[in-house]
Design a protein that fits this description.
This protein is of the alpha+beta class. The chain contains five helices and nine strands. 19% of the residues lie in helices and 48% in strands. Strand 7 and strand 8 form a beta hairpin.
Length: 248
């Protein structure tokens, strides 16, 4: 038996070390859920002057731990958007599905689920004989969202903001496999911490482009994963999603 020396909470708070950007390992079940939601739910465009019609979207992009946001911003400021995107992608990645339907002219109900993974973290493990070894681990978050979206303008360009409650499952496992494809087949590695579930909140700002039946969008979502149900001494864990997506 062994225990971790430098816990994942401390690792998360101090920022993740850069790992292999292709080591995020979304599970087959999440991919299947996204495909199923996209295929089953109706896709249509309509006049939404009295509330937008029911719609579903998919999205993906890098996820940045809160302690590393300044690092990515500095990269953007000094070397440009390409280098900043690469830096952010090496920290973490996410993909998800969301739905929305109008409640009135300006407000909509919004919800969804997401798979977020932070690869390449170094965890120190202490064995029974006192020896210490360093393991590369992967932290996975699976949040579920439900809340409201405010859409003030219903033209070709549609800015929006959202506030949502979230319930998040979290696990930490030893990294296995050398690529995303290998991990999709073999699954995640041995878990080194108990799975946890916490309540939290997410705040989103984005912009949509109404192209008829398809609405591409860009958004920033700030996730606070453990505002409710934290254990004593547990650090608040938060991260920023930078997403590109498409609403049907």
């Amino acid at each position: 038996m062994w225990t971790t020396g430098d816990g994942v909470l401390s690792s998360f708070t101090n920022g993740f070390q850069e790992g292999n950007a292709m080591n995020y390992t979304p599970r087959l079940v999440v991919l299947a859920l996204i495909v199923a939601v996209t295929a089953i739910l109706p896709s249509h465009a309509a006049d939404d002057s009295e509330g937008e019609p029911f719609s579903v979207g998919v999205y993906l992009g890098p996820s940045i731990p809160s302690a590393s946001i300044e690092q990515v911003y500095n990269t953007l400021d000094t070397t440009g958007i390409g280098a900043a995107y690469q830096s952010a992608s090496s920290l973490g990645f996410h993909l998800g599905a969301k739905l929305r339907f109008g409640l009135n002219d300006a407000f909509s109900f919004s919800g969804g689920l997401q798979f977020t993974q932070f690869p390449g973290q170094d965890q120190t493990a202490t064995l029974d004989n006192g020896n210490k070894v360093t393991l590369q681990t992967v932290t996975t978050f699976v949040p579920f969202y439900a809340g409201f979206t405010f859409i003030p303008i219903k033209g070709l360009v549609r800015p929006y903001v959202s506030a949502e409650a979230m319930f998040t499952y979290k696990s930490v496992s030893i990294a296995t496999g050398s690529s995303i494809y290998e991990n999709l087949i073999s699954g995640s590695g041995q878990e080194i911490e108990p799975k946890t579930s916490r309540g939290g909140a997410a705040f989103t700002g984005g912009i949509e482009f109404n192209l008829g039946g398809l609405r591409p969008f860009f958004e920033l979502k700030y996730n606070m994963t453990n505002l409710i149900g934290k254990a004593a001494g547990e650090e608040t864990m938060s991260f920023l999603n930078v997403s590109l997506g498409l609403v049907f």
